[in-house]
Design a protein that fits this description.
The chain is 15% helix and 44% strand. It is an alpha+beta fold and 529 residues long. It has an 18-stranded antiparallel barrel. Helix 4 packs antiparallel against helix 5 and helix 7 packs across helix 8. The chain has 9 helices and 22 strands.
Length: 529
């Protein structure tokens, strides 16, 4: 079944996989669309994934593709440390393709240039049984760090702090250094979350990257519960003015400067907000095979453990699933159970899900220029459907899954027009179709920026051969054309392959490529369908 949006995913910055940084994590701007299923954050940190590949699969370095870093980059965990209640790791990044492309430049000596390397560190500490603190810091380039170690060549006497090229000053002001601290405390049925970040990297729906100089937040979120049909979250947030990163793909389009100004005005804010949503999900059809399986599923009762009826119930359950795994046409006297490739996949079914809710937002300490003051109310709704066919036990074309998710209201995606400006080159029209920016808060559109508040996400998964599946995710929306007509447009796509690893199939190796972000990666996912 397609996962319902968490209330924190709708209006709070959410983590998303991105190998543009050694840490492998970025944020989506507030009010932005939820990440595609292939781009969702994994339950394992990037450092732990790289460490697993090194230790258990004998892969010395993990390759990834990041166009802004020159192409192929290599990551390796160079150190792990910890104790009984805490642990940490350090990851080194090498821009291998960039070094190779500059190999003929003898003066540059790219192998010894500090900006060809990056480093990140992660620490997690259990302060108490119900309190966890975590922190990350990364340096996208070692050049500022080497500048600290290099003696400045300045004449004696003058104030070195006033020198514009002083290494200490450049290291403290660089955007290559990023850090984040998070403190989570569990209270009855709730989580108390405090977070602060420096030079936070955010991503919009079109692959553009933004730098938020500083942000602070304090939130209270309700625990997800299978029996509860509602969830809520409230908090206070403060963020600085965002600016588009110099290595962002959206910078190639001059028209994106309009979106740059709007985002910079709206992200700089201090506000309080609260949201609540009601959700519901239901399986409208589940395939059952065999009389034993159907009878067990319909007549199963709860009996005390160890009783004779309980033992009989367990025997019937085992026989039912053995009959489930018998190939059609095979001799019944020679039963051989067929185990599915994936350990967490369920039977073929059709599922529906939906939710609706609203958000209240109150600016504090004045509103940024260009945005209205006062309380804002934003209603939203979302619905999804998942169709799964096949059992994923046969070696060819035995699994197909299609998931649709429609979101109405509550998001703001800005896309650039199709028509190129006067200063654009002849091929800039294609870049304009691909690039855009996400806007947070209440938006005042200009003539050059088209705003979208509704979108649909499609996710297709198809077994190719054995445990290997091909996957395609896309986000589609109706966009107003220059002729004032609504036309469908693909805002974002992502392609991937995943392979269930033996012996249990609970662990999967996933390869994915995002054309809009211009990055590709390999990752490990555990207990995910």
């Amino acid at each position: 079944m397609i996962k319902l949006n968490n209330i924190g995913d709708l209006f709070w910055k959410q983590d998303v996989q991105s190998v543009r940084s050694p840490e492998g994590v970025a944020r989506i701007l507030e009010y932005g669309p939820s990440p595609l299923s292939l781009e969702r954050i994994s339950g394992l940190s990037r450092a732990l994934q790289v460490h697993i590949l090194q230790k258990f699969f004998d892969i010395p370095v993990t390759p990834s593709f990041v166009k802004s870093s020159g192409g192929m980059v290599l990551d390796r965990v160079v150190g792990t440390f910890g104790g009984l209640h805490w642990w940490g790791s350090s990851t080194l990044r090498v821009r291998a393709q960039s070094i190779w492309s500059h190999r003929r430049n003898e003066e540059a000596r790219p192998l010894f240039k500090s900006d060809m390397y990056g480093v990140s560190s992660r620490v997690r500490c259990n302060l108490a049984p119900d309190t966890v603190a975590s922190g990350t810091c990364e340096l996208g380039s070692l050049a500022p760090l080497m500048g600290l170690l290099r003696r400045p060549h300045t004449p004696a006497g003058p104030d070195v702090d006033a020198a514009p090229d002083h290494p200490t000053r450049s290291a403290l002001c660089t955007k290559d250094f990023r850090g984040k601290l998070n403190l989570t405390k569990k209270i009855p049925m709730h989580d108390l979350i405090a977070e602060c970040a420096l030079n936070e990297r955010c991503i919009d729906a079109a692959g553009g990257h933004w730098d938020v100089p500083h942000s602070l937040s304090l939130d209270v979120a309700s625990h997800p519960h299978p029996e509860k049909k509602y969830s809520y979250r409230l908090g206070v947030h403060k963020a600085g003015t965002a600016s588009m990163a110099s290595d962002s793909s959206s910078r190639s389009c001059p028209t994106s400067q309009v979106a740059d100004q709007l985002v910079g005005q709206l992200v700089s804010h201090t506000h309080a907000q609260a949201a609540i949503q009601f959700t519901r999900s239901k399986d409208i059809w589940i395939e059952t095979r065999g009389k034993r399986a159907a009878g067990w599923a319909s007549r199963r009762k709860s009996h005390p453990p160890g009783s004779a009826k309980k033992k009989k119930e367990e025997e019937v359950e085992v026989e039912a699933f053995q009959e489930w795994g018998v190939e059609e046409g095979r001799d019944k006297s020679k039963k051989r159970p067929l185990m599915p490739y994936g350990a967490v996949l369920q039977r073929p079914r059709v599922s529906l899900s939906g939710g609706l809710g609203g958000l209240l937002r109150l600016p504090l300490g004045g509103s940024p220029a260009g945005s209205p003051g006062g309380m804002q109310t934003i209603p939203f709704a979302h619905a999804g459907m998942t169709v799964r066919v096949g059992e994923f036990v046969r070696p060819f074309m035995d699994f197909t899954q299609l998931a649709l998710h429609l979101r109405l209201g509550g998001e703001a995606i800005a896309t650039l027009p199709h028509r190129p400006s006067v200063s654009q080159p002849a091929n800039a029209e294609q870049d304009s179709d691909r690039n855009g920016s996400q806007l947070g808060g209440t938006i005042h559109p200009s003539n050059d920026v088209k705003l979208i508040s509704n979108s649909m996400t499609l996710a297709l998964s198809q077994q190719l051969l054995g445990p290997v599946r091909g996957r395609v995710d896309a986000r589609v929306a109706l966009v107003e054309s220059p002729a004032s007509k609504l036309e469908p447009r693909i805002l974002e796509t992502c392609y991937g392959l995943d392979c269930a690893l033996p012996p249990s199939g609970a662990t999967r190796l996933v390869l994915r490529y995002s054309p809009s972000r211009q990055e590709a990666l390999a990752e490990i996912r555990v207990l995910e369908s």
